[in-house]
Design brief:
Blueprint lengths: L39 H12 L3 H14 L3 H25 L6 H8 L2 H24 L1 H8 L13 E3 L4 E3 L1 H15 L2 H33 L14 H12 L7 H5 L7 H30 L10 H7 L6 H21 L1 H11 L18 H17 L6 H24 L4 E4 L4 H14 L4 H4 L4 H4 L5 H8 L6 H27 L7 H21 L22 H15 L3 H25 L6 E4 L3 H12 L1
Antiparallel strand pairs: 1-2, 3-4
Helix pairs in contact: 1-8, 1-11, 1-13, 2-9, 2-11, 3-9, 3-11, 3-16, 3-23, 4-5, 4-16, 5-7, 5-13, 5-14, 5-15, 5-16, 5-24, 6-13, 7-13, 7-15, 8-11, 8-13, 12-13, 14-15, 16-21, 16-23, 17-25, 21-22, 21-23
Length: 622
């Protein structure tokens, strides 16, 4: 019995795809280069500012008219609960692994380098296109705020270039540059500004809620007194509305991306994620209750639902307050969209998957200035020269893939946390020496490591308990990990088959069969994980003492199922465009990231032997 040593570079040509990095622990001295300046209030400002964009000023009208009707608030509630499942998973991983990189970082630790690269690459696309799309939406809102296009300076207006048939937007590019410069000043400075801008947006929404509520009580809430009832499109329409507004909650992952800059991540990150999501859900529901109550859902203006609802009751002046809220919401969302991307690029560069240029930290501001400038330039070019609204669906792919991988990572962390960690190849001699000592010390210790024997260690007076525990009789450290790995894989496959068959109406002949197979795989996996114990090693994984995701495995599996359904329904065109981006990223990884990875020559040893491995060279020197 000895130390198991694996070298991914020597075991199979595709083994590099699954190599995993070590999680930072509380016992490990990790001297971060980023400034630890953020507290709960800063995180809430980032979360609310990144989540509540101008979509709420438009989305309520479209969803109410086409899907939900007066039940719009319930659609927002269901979508908020679905987003909360991912938020729970993010909160635990952010506490245990408080480093920059968000879902990329978690995937690298739990799933492997290949999956982590694809997630990081998809998130780069998400934040780039998302930031450009937000910036393109600021110009028309500024025009409304100034009373029309005639009152906006000429150099800020959109211009059509006839020779190349594009519409450039100088105002969008200028705003991206301003936000990029602000983010380069420092994390605390930019967060304070974002908090001020977000506060203005929240005040505008509070005005809508209070003033609209007063008008509604005064006029009798005409929008709810309809013969069609509260669900004019049925429950299916209300659920379809929930799927549409789900993306209005995307933004709390920006909080997780700043984990390395939080003073007390174990306490503040869960509060920042949870409070920001709760506030956003409450705001969305209250605004939707007011809007669909003031005007019948079929009469709501899909372009300007809130201001037109006030205009119908003689409050045309309220449009100025609403336009201020929309502009500040866009500016805050733009800051929240650009903020995480340099930190993800920095994390990927630290791991060797991107050039070291991206992980340079400015000594004065303690932020990745070079990566921030590159991010701002890319977003500014897109915002200036392209109409990115058609590419907006690609943003959702990165978000949903990240949500799915985070949920899978929680299952892995709880049931099969990584039990081997990489060490530099220079310690090969130390590993061999420890291996010899380990064999001598553990010849007669099999009694301490024997698998659980239910028949001898537990009474059989309670048959249900015996059946519940008997599963572990067939599991030991040798095959437990392999069985649980396949179980999690079957759960993911079952979620895909079930959602694909339920969404694809053209599969009339095999649709129900696929649903049945997917449902069986999903339920069987859930029952199996419920009946076995979670791995005790999870308590020592990463930083302990923080938030713990409840209802595992039910909550992560539900998260995987919901995200799979939303991914399937994004459309073929969106997936084709994303596939081109992912293939390009895969080529970059194969020809650069794979060969420059910090784990290229790493040797993997059991977690229990890591300290001895590093201490052996010191003992020789002593």
């Amino acid at each position: 019995m000895g130390v198991s040593v694996d070298s991914p570079s020597q075991k199979g040509s595709w083994k590099f795809f699954t190599r995993r990095k070590q999680v930072d622990s509380a016992r490990k001295n990790t001297n971060t280069l980023l400034a630890k300046e953020l507290t709960v209030s800063h995180l809430i400002a980032i979360g609310v500012g990144s989540t509540i964009g101008a979509g709420v000023y438009v989305l309520v009208g479209t969803v109410a008219r086409e899907h939900s009707g007066p039940a719009l608030a319930i659609s927002f509630l269901i979508a908020g609960l679905a987003a909360g499942l991912s938020a729970f998973c993010y909160a635990e991983l952010a506490c245990r692994c408080p480093s920059a990189g968000s879902a990329y970082h978690y995937s690298y630790i739990c799933l492997g380098e290949g999956v982590a690269w694809l997630i990081g690459w998809a998130l780069v696309l998400e934040y780039t296109i998302g930031g450009a799309a937000v910036a393109r939406g600021i110009t028309p809102n500024l025009a409304q705020l100034f009373g029309g296009l005639d009152n906006v300076p000429f150099f800020l207006l959109r211009q059509h270039i006839p020779g190349i048939d594009i519409v450039v937007d100088p105002c969008a590019a200028i705003l991206v540059f301003l936000v990029t410069g602000l983010l380069c000043l420092g994390i605390k400075e930019s967060t304070v500004v974002q908090g001020i801008v977000t506060s203005v947006n929240v005040c505008a929404l509070l005005f809508v809620i209070v003033a609209g509520g007063y008008i509604g009580f005064k006029s009798g809430w005409v929008g709810y007194e309809l013969p069609t009832g509260y669900f004019p499109f049925g429950v299916d329409g209300m659920l379809a509305g929930s799927a549409t507004v789900f993306f209005a909650y995307v933004g709390f992952d920006a909080v997780a991306s700043t984990a390395e800059e939080v003073k007390n991540p174990q306490r503040d990150l869960p509060l920042g994620i949870g409070v920001s999501l709760f506030l956003c859900c409450g705001m969305y529901m209250l605004v939707s209750i007011v809007v669909v109550g003031l005007v019948p859902y079929y009469a709501i203006d899909p372009d300007t639902p809130i201001s037109s609802a006030f205009s119908d009751h003689g409050m045309q002046w309220a449009a100025y307050i609403i336009n201020v809220g929309a502009c500040t919401a866009l500016c805050s969302a733009l800051m929240g969209g650009i903020l995480p991307q340099p930190r993800i690029l920095m994390a990927m560069a630290r791991d060797g998957l991107l050039p070291p240029f991206f992980c340079d930290i400015n000594k004065h501001t303690l932020v990745p200035v070079k990566g921030t400038v590159i991010t701002g330039l890319a977003a500014a070019v897109l915002a200036f020269s392209m109409e990115v609204s058609e590419l907006a669906g690609m943003v959702s792919v990165g978000t949903l893939l990240a949500f799915t991988m985070v949920a899978i990572s929680v299952l892995i962390l709880r049931y099969i946390p990584p039990n081997k960690v990489p060490v530099p190849p220079s310690l090969q001699g130390s590993i061999v020496e420890i291996n010899v000592e380990y064999v001598g010390e553990n010849i007669s210790t099999s009694e301490d490591t024997k698998p659980l024997d239910v028949a001898h260690d537990f009474p059989v007076d309670y048959p249900l308990i015996s059946k519940y525990l008997a599963i572990d009789t067939y599991l030991n450290e040798g095959n437990r990990r392999r069985v649980v790995e396949w179980t999690i894989a079957f759960i993911c496959l079952g979620a895909f088959l079930l959602t694909f068959a339920a969404s694809c109406l053209t599969l009339s002949s095999v649709r129900f069969a696929l649903c049945g197979v997917g449902g069986v795989l999903l339920v069987s996996g859930f029952v199996f994980l419920t009946c076995i114990d979670q791995d005790e090693a999870r308590h020592d994984f990463g930083h302990s003492g923080g938030f713990v995701c409840p209802f595992v495995p039910l909550l992560p599996i539900a998260c995987i199922l919901i995200n799979s359904y939303l991914l399937i329904n994004l459309g073929v065109g969106t997936w084709l465009r994303v596939s081109v981006w992912l293939v390009a990223g895969l080529l970059i990884y194969v020809f650069y990231g794979r060969t420059h990875s910090s784990l290229k020559d790493a040797i993997y040893v059991p977690v229990s032997q890591v300290d001895q491995t590093y201490q052996a060279p010191r003992s020789h020197l002593a």
